[in-house]
Amino acid sequence: MKVLAATPENIRFAGEALRRGELVGLPTETVYGIAAVATNRAAVLATFELKRRPAENPLIVHVNSLEQIYELVESLPAEAAVLARAFWPGPLTIVMQKSSSVPNEVTAGLSTVAVRYPSHPVAQSIIGAADAPLSAPSANRFMGLSPTRAEHVDPSILAGLACLVDGGPCAVGVESTVVDCAGDGVAVLRPGGISAEQIQSVIGTLRDRQSEERRSPGQYRRHYSPRTPVRLVPRLDCDDDGIAIGESLGSNQISLPEDPAGYAAALYAALHDLDELGLDLISVQAPPKTPEWSAVWDRLDKMLG
Ligand code: TXA
Ligand code: MG
Predict the structure, then answer these.
(1) How far is the CA of 100 from the centre of ligand 2 (A)?
(2) Rounded Cα gap, residues 271 and 275, in angstroms
(3) Closest C-alpha to 109, from 74, 147, 59, 157
(4) Phi, psi of 88 (to 5 degrees)
């Protein structure tokens, strides 16, 4: 069995596999990831191969203490220190100038590295058992839906892992917010688990995201998609298959919570389940166009292509 319960013994096993250069599926509070020891070039390359991910799309390095970031970055920018104090451990990824100890394979040749300190206790324990920072992209094939349950990790991904540690359903359900602290000021490169408003509350003014988009590789127009085509609708009709908000009417309809955090936590799992039904079309009831929904809207827009 490759899917292991998060017992101390299995976490030790996962740590040993990582130290041997193998890949391990790990739970985080956002989505499940494919972990490798970030300084092991061969293991990092195997991650790209397993995901069928283009080499120009950099990986996030995961740490389990603030001290661990000092070996990864040239220096800690003041804004990064403020953000780390406010939101770590948690669903925030900070891009900074990298040190020479981070292989170019991890950063896709960029001079910057993205670092995250996850709050999931099992992720923290696995980093501890490996005794090293871990690179970890989401545990899906390139362009696909990120898994938020161990049972949603595709068998083709599972086949390339030494094991997958089951940490239960991911509480946040969308990927981390990526912020750029590598230049002047702070910009949100990918909306996610921490809102732009939360970041603004500790940083003040943010640089405009639009003008920054070119600087975050891996932000493809189509991404995070189920296999089934998706369309947005104001409301689901009784015979529409898909995702409603607050209430469900028909048989292949899943109702998600009306609050943005509850909705985000359940979205990928609902799409995964609908995808398994082999439908022609998944209709998604459009959520409100307000700032609290921006991470959800970012993902929905990318499913529409
Ligand atoms: O929540 C998450 O962040 C999850 C869990 C597993 O931690 N990970 C995740 O990784 O979403 P991934 O590989 O699916 O997305 C990483 C994205 C890249 O596509 C890119 O947009 C951004 O992070 N990124 C990584 N390194 C970067 C860098 N040096 N500069 C700018 N953006 C970077
Ligand atoms: Mg991903």
Answers:
(1) 25
(2) 6
(3) 59
(4) -100, 145
Q: Name the residue at shortest CA distance from atom 15 of ligand 1.
A: 137
Vertex 240: Cα angle to 235 and 246 (nearest 5): 45
Q: Which residues pair with 144 in a beta bridge?
A: 225
Is there a contact between 161 and 8 (Cβ–Cβ < 8 Å)?
Answer: no
The two three-digit tokens of residue 272, written as one number: 């995964």
pTM, to two decimals = 0.95
Q: Which residues pair with 243 in a beta bridge?
A: 254, 284
* Three-state secondary structure readout of 94-117: EEEEECCCCCHHHHCCCCEEEEEC
Cα first-last separation, the chain: 37
Token pair in block for residue 254: 């899943």
Atom of ligand 1 nearest to the CA of 53: 13
pLDDT digits (tens, 9 = 90+) for 94-108: 999 999 999 999 999
- Answer yes or no: are the C-beta atoms of 26 and 136 closer than 8 Å: yes
Here the tokens at position 44 are: 């990092």
Cα of 131 vs centre of ligand 2, distance in Å, is 24
State how far the Cα of 121 lies from the Cα of 2, in Å rounded to an integer.
20
- Write the pLDDT tens digit of every residue in 272-296: 999 999 999 999 999 999 999 999 9
Q: Give yes or no for a contact between 177 and 91, defined as CB atoms under 8 angstroms apart.
A: yes
Q: Between helices 8-19 and 121-130, what is the axis angle to 10°?
A: 50
In this structure, are residues 224 and 192 in contact, taking their beta carbons and an 8 Å threshold?
no
Please say whether the dihedral angle defined by the alpha carbons of residues 127, 132, 133 and 137, taken in this order, is positive or negative.
negative
Answer whether 51's CB lies under 8 Å from 76's CB: no
How far apart are alpha carbons 16 and 295 in whole angstroms? 35
Q: At what angle do helices 196-203 and 78-87 cross, to 10 degrees?
A: 120
